[in-house]
């Protein structure tokens, strides 16, 4: 576990963790690490949905100091897991359906993929799943991932960032990846 946080607040950590996960997903893809790819797709689709549901359920404010996107106050519970208040992935799927972030088909597909993910993570040895079963599920996740990414991008419509801001952000993301690799002993 890290001694000191890399970021000033949990939301900055959340957003940079998403960027880090996207970079790790590309690495998993390049190296053919299917189980890692499956886990990262599940984490990223959950993150995209959390963002979209937070935006959809946020309240209009003006001058209110809180976690905000433009003039919408966002519920911090979508972005930070503590022992008091947080949402599971399946709760997020349900909220996304109820707020019309996703449709019934996407909801069904997410639940099936997440059940498959759980079987791989928790019961790979004790179930009839094989490594060959992963590729088609990754293709399904890729479709949802791309769809949700586009939806979130359309919802956020933030102002462009400068090259200096982009470079600083990139350095923080690489620090996060480097720290994770160092802590797990997989640094290259």
Per-chain topology:
Elements: H1 10-31, H2 34-57, E1 59-60, E2 68-69, E3 72-73, H3 89-98, H4 104-123, H5 134-156, H6 163-184
Helix pairs in contact: 1-2, 1-6, 2-3, 2-4, 2-5, 3-4, 4-5
Written overview of the protein:
By secondary structure, the chain is mainly alpha-helical. It has a single domain (10-184), classed as Four Helix Bundle (Hemerythrin (Met), subunit A) (Up-down Bundle), CATH 1.20.120. The chain has six helices and three strands, in the order H-H-E-E-E-H-H-H-H. It has helices at residues 10-31, 34-57, 89-98, 104-123, 134-156, 163-184; strands spanning 59-60, 68-69, 72-73. A three-stranded antiparallel β-sheet has the order 1-3-2, with no helix packed on it. A hairpin with a 2-residue loop joins strand 2 and strand 3. Helix 3 packs antiparallel against helix 4 and helix 4 packs across helix 5 (134-156). It is globular, with a radius of gyration of 17 Å. The model is unreliable at 61-65 (pLDDT under 50). It comes from Candidatus Adlerbacteria bacterium RIFCSPLOWO2_01_FULL_51_16. This is HEPN domain-containing protein.
């Amino acid at each position: 576990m890290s001694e000191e946080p890399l970021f000033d607040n949990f939301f900055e950590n959340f957003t940079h963790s998403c960027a880090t996960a996207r970079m790790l997903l590309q690495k998993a893809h390049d190296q053919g690490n299917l189980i890692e790819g499956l886990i990262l797709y599940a984490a990223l689709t959950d993150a995209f949905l959390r963002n979209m549901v937070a935006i959809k359920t946020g309240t209009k404010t003006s001058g209110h100091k809180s976690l905000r996107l433009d003039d919408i106050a966002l519920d911090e519970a979508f972005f930070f897991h503590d022992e008091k208040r947080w949402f599971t992935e399946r709760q997020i799927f349900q909220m996304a359906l109820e707020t019309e972030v996703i449709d019934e088909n996407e909801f069904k597909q997410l639940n099936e993929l997440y059940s498959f993910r759980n079987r791989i993570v928790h019961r790979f040895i004790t179930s009839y799943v094989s490594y060959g079963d992963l590729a088609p599920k990754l293709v399904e996740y890729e479709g949802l991932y791309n769809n949700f990414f586009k939806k979130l991008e359309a919802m956020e419509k933030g102002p462009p960032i400068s090259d200096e801001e982009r470079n600083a952000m990139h350095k923080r993301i690489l620090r996060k990846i480097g720290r994770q690799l160092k802590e797990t002993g997989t640094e290259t």
